Amino acid sequence: MSRVVVIDDYEPTLRMYAAAIEKMLGGEVVPFSDPREALHYLNGMDPTLCVVDYSMPDMDGVEFVLELRGVPGRERTPIIMLTGKDDRELKNRALDAGVNVFLNKPVTAEEFASHVRRLATAQNAQTDRDGEMRELKERAEAADRRLHARDREAIDGMARAYAARDSEGAAKMRLASEIAVMLAIELRCSVSDVQTIREAGHVYDVGKLCVAEKTLGTTALLSPASRAAIEKHADAGAEILSIADSKLFSAAATMARSHHERWDGMGYPRKLKGEAIPLSGRIIAVADALVAMMNARPDRPAMTFGHALDQVKRESGTHFDPNIVAALERIKDKVGQLRS
Asked: Strand, coil or helix: what is 272?
């Protein structure tokens, strides 16, 4: 349905144009004798067309158009301006301000009707196209949300499968992922990146499902062969998490593959160095190492949080990204509470 706003301070002319437009288009015609009232109305409503007179006492037509074009969403509203002044400079100012059709009075009924119908038809068609595009966008976004929910459920399923085999290891991953989220927030990562770590950070070690239980569960020092087998878990985890072509699975695979890389390039599996290591992997590396140090291993007892933090700080710039270690230091009190 068409909705046309007409602005003219002279009531008889206002009524005449309103009646003519209503007869031409049907729909709704909203008349205003005060351009400021019209602007207030147009702040909340997008019309099919505006018809405005130039000569008005408090605000002329060009000033009105400039104000209207500054309203978000009104940049493309069609505007017809009418004036009794035969002034080329005025016409140029009006067109520069955003007027679509500039008509000098007197204007014939046929010419006026032609412009009104043409602009209204074009605007209605554009509105229909915009509506169709919004609907398509909403459908696509709803589909994306469904797929994202499916991906989250699948990743959570992987976490449960891991916990069924190694509940202690799964608990360590959950704690490390919580710390990683806190680090990402402290580092002022984007909301999207923080959410990705929150949703996918608890499966970064899932590749250990491909390592023999006797190797993972040994109480003895690891042999070179056993260590080599364990080091394959980063690539194995990335392969497991590459089963779905989605942003969430891709992010999870990146964390799995890169969380054992080192800042100095001496890590595995790619021996990436410095900022060549994905940020999410650098964050998980710090969180994973901190949690690992606070748990006993065959070659050493569990460390206190303070001792583990000191060790991470000692390896800043060699094993770990210095910026992330500095972020950990800033939030150490909050992280320490997680452990307790």
From this structure: coil
Answer yes or no: is 9 within a domain: yes
Residue 278 is assigned to a structural domain of this protein: yes
Task: Specify the 3-state DSSP secondary structure of 304.
Answer: coil
Residues paired with residue 101 on neighbouring β-strands, in sequence order: 80
The residue segments making up the domain with residue 83 are 3-136
What gap in Å lies between CA 64 and CA 215, rounded to an integer? 78
**Mean pLDDT over the full length of the chain:** 91
Helix (H), strand (E) counts: the chain: 15, 5
Reduced DSSP (H G I as helix, E B as strand, rest coil) percent helix, strand, coil of the chain, to 5: 65, 10, 30
Cis peptide before 72 (omega within 30 of 0): no
The amino acid at 129: R
CA angle 218, 257, 304 (to 5 degrees): 50
Question: Alpha-carbon distance 152 to 331, whole Å?
Answer: 28
Residue 156 belongs to a domain: no
| Model confidence at 222: pLDDT above 70 | no
What are the tokens at 212? 């023999």
| Maximum separation of any 2 CA atoms in the chain, in Å | 100
Q: Which long-range contacts (CB under 8 A, 24 or more apart) does 64-72 make?
A: 64/7, 64/35, 64/38, 64/39, 65/94, 65/97, 65/98, 65/99, 66/97, 66/98, 67/39, 68/39, 68/42, 68/98, 69/97, 69/98, 71/39, 71/42, 71/43
CATH (domain of 19):
3.40.50.2300
What's this model's pTM, rounded to 2 decimal places?
Answer: 0.66
Q: Could you read off the pLDDT of 156-179 as tens digits, one per residue?
A: 999 999 999 889 999 999 999 999
The CATH number of residue 255's host domain is 1.10.3210.10
Burial of 67 (0-12, 13-18, 19+ CB in 10 A): middle
Helix (H, G, I), strand (E, B) or coil at 110: helix
Q: Do 48 and 127 touch, CB atoms closer than 8 A?
A: yes
Strands 79-83, 101-104: pairing kind: parallel
